[in-house]
Amino acid sequence: MPATVHLKDIAASVGSELGVSRWFTVDQTMIDRFADATEDHQFIHTDPERAAAETPFGGTIAHGFLTLSLLSAMNYDCIPRIVEQTMGINYGFDKVRFITPVKSGARVRGRFVLDEARFRGAGMLTVRYNVTVEIEDERKPALTAEWTTIIQFDPKDRPEDV
């Protein structure tokens, strides 16, 4: 279970690694379910025999967007919870790069560095993470990105000095 942190202490963590998630196995069942959900059934994801014969990957690979979507679970797994938070909202991604394909059966984990924390309005905090999804036993990561979220909180909980 991730630790907790108070709003008043967030600024001190800027530039620090906040957490590394547990390993998540990206198996063929997960890939197939993602293909069904997104209607992206390209053979490099869903046909192990053809992917082994016709690609340099030796089998199927996960959709890049599947790997990206795992960031939510990875975040919940390791990022400290803000005590005063009432809701979190995805704001978006910048500089998403899919660097190394994730082969079916591989394990991945997320690494989160707090790049920025900026108070907006009376009850919002914008948080930007530099995220890396690592693949077990691979030199290069699956992806890197800048992920911005908005943390909402009751305005009465806003630290006085920000």
From TrEMBL:
Residues 12-131 form the MaoC-like domain. InterPro entries: HotDog_dom_sf (IPR029069), MaoC-like_dom (IPR002539), NodN-like (IPR039375). Signal peptide: none annotated. CDD domains: NodN. Pfam families: MaoC_dehydratas (PF01575). It comes from the Bacteria. This is Nodulation protein N. It comes from Shinella zoogloeoides.
